[in-house]
Design brief:
- The complex is a heterodimer of chains A (about 500) and B (about 180).
- Chain A has about 500 residues and is α+β, with helices and mostly antiparallel strands.
- Chain A is built from ten helices and 15 strands.
- Among the domains of chain A are: about 55-65 and about 265-320 and about 375-415 and about 435-500, Porin, CATH 2.40.160.20; about 85-260, no CATH class.
- In chain A, the strands form three sheets. In chain A, strands 7-8-9-10-11-13-14-15 form an eight-stranded antiparallel barrel. Chain A has a three-stranded mixed β-sheet with strand order 1-6-2, with no helix packed on it. A three-stranded mixed β-sheet of chain A has the order 3-4-5.
- The longest helix of chain A has 21 residues, at about 55-75.
- Chain B has two domains: about 5-85, Orthogonal Bundle (Rna Polymerase Sigma Factor, Chain: A), CATH 1.10.1740.10; about 90-180, Winged helix-like DNA-binding domain superfamily/Winged helix DNA-binding domain (Arc Repressor Mutant, subunit A, Orthogonal Bundle).
- Chain B is built from eight helices and no strands.
- Chain B has helices spanning about 5-10, 15-35, 40-60, 70-85, 120-125, 130-140, 145-155, 155-180.
- Chain B is globular and about 50 Å long.
- The termini of chain B are far apart.
- Classes of the chains: A alpha+beta (about 500), B mainly alpha (about 180).
- The interface between A and B is large, with 42 and 51 residues.
Chain lengths: ~500, ~180
Amino acid sequence: MSNEKFLKEDEQLDNLFRSSLGEMQTDPSAGVWKKLNRQMTMSELGRFQFINLPKAFWGIIPLAAILTGVILYLGTGESESLPNQHDETITSQEVILSPTTKPDPLTLESTIPEPASNGISTAQEAQVKLSTSTGQIATSEEAAITPAKQVTTSEEAATTPAKQVTTSVITTAPRHHGTNSTTAPLHHGTTSTTAPLHHGTTSTTAPLHHGTTSNPQIVSPDPISGLNGQYPEPLLSVVVNPPTMQSVINPVPKETSPESLRKPLSRSLDLGINITPDMVFYNNASGSFKYNYTFDFGARYNLGRFYIQSGAGLTYSTDIGDYAISYLKNDSIGYYYTINSYSIEPGNTGDPQFEAKQVTVYDSVQYLYDYSTKNKYYYLQIPLSVGYRIIDNAAWRLSVEAGLLYAYLVSINEPAPTFYIPEGRILDIERRGAERNKHSLGLTAGISVEYQFARNFFLLIEPTFKYYLQAIDENSSRGDKQPYSIGLRTGIWYRLNFQNKTR
Amino acid sequence: MPLDPIIIEGCIKEKRKAQFMLYQHFASPMLSLCMRYCRNRQEAEDVLQEGFIKIFQKISTFRQSGSIEGWVRRIMINQAINTLKAKKLIIIDTDPYTLGNWIPDQGSVDAGEQMYKPEEVMEAIQALPPGYKVVFNLYVFEGYSHKNIAEELEISENTSKSQLSRARNYLRKSLTERKK
């Protein structure tokens, strides 16, 4: 067989396949779209599509954060104004009420079951009626043992209310069978006790004043019964958990008037430097994201648990230079056979035999080439946010904050594409990437964790979220919507206390 | 029937309904295309699925001045080739077996005399070794030149030519045996 015949057969074979399969259509099974749909959904979820929520939602976030902070602040206003020592006196006690005959809201009776904690011996069957409190227990003991001193100290208490808690003990019971009975007014943060007369018991009584530390009312005891007529029997049993030694020793707050108990909000200024890598999601169909890096200087004015924060930062952002380059180039577009000669073999069927040569055909073919360069952008960023500290203790601070972020494009570096095509000719270079906006405004939110690693120095770690209120690019041909970013701000902060040191 | 540009716009906006309409429009011809590159229907449907994922992800880069069908077809072919490469199924003999040295040892298949069902032709092409299959498909159905195929598969032009010849020879054998 000659080459010509082979070529003819090749052509026939190719045509056979083209005609049989070229226009063939095969319906896919129904499961293909189901799997495709599921995969697309998972892909969309993986690209943080929650940004498609209504725009109003993103405006509500900062407002909700501020509102939450206000509510938290109002809810904790009292604890904000009271010093910590209060927690160790009345408020820290577990008071268990037991049934009594005549509950009198003004009188509480307590039993101290463990003499080791209050110094009263069980051999004496000490049952001490007291309102609550810890430091007072020691006072009750003292009152029982040294009545003369009690009177003296209660007088002092009348003149110096601050000492009432520990010393305002007034003897109200006569000495029956060696018992001691005392009364004292009850105040928040103070303790006084009341007790029936039993053999070998120590008893103190007190009217109840809520949250005040007014001068104690000295009640004269009945010389016969030893009772003052107001508290003939135990009215209400109160079991007080044994106080700790720490609470017994703790000093009483010096401020005793309601006004003095409310401290002014602490004020301070924090200064810090931070660096923040951000993943910016452009929210387009490709689901691509890029990295931004921000170095910023921050200042924060603290007022109690609230703070307002601002500063200035420099952001480095990169982008792919998206260019479409059209060029012409000679290329093979096919081939044909040219017949140089033919012959007819006499002994054969008489068919002509061709001597052919394959000739490749070249033509100018237009190509499109995408070329990518790296563009660099620098932004000046100015944030303004408010925050609230949820946790603020000696070593740790946990805060939520939200606010606005203004960014100004200060520098652009967009290198031109360089392209060389051997034996080709460039027709057109089209920039497909859009121009960047000069100004942009965004919403920010974050949850910051600060750790005090040295005096007045804090280490900051803050996951941040930013949502840009407008597209970064002027041209939205790429389908870019408002991008958003997730970042991690880390830095070192220094606290300047200029009033009411809180630590 | 041309595709309505509104469907493309909808796909750019990630509207699921528009994506389904695009899928409906191209699924059948693209599955046939994929089947020519794969060993069976199941493999072809997997390629089809992955191909459409890429189409939906990249459709924002499609330039509406071009042909959407050509663009979709191009993505499907690339997906099929990449799948074969990933499975290491494309093993092309790089020994240049030039046409000048190539002498077929089989007789011809006369398409005029023998009628083949499309299913038989499809089975024959699916039974080809992957390397032959890709070269044959690109040359016969996509109209690629040997130079284009060589660039696409990173092989020499002579290798492409020899693979095509071997593929044809293989198909001749296969079709002839089916008629016996």
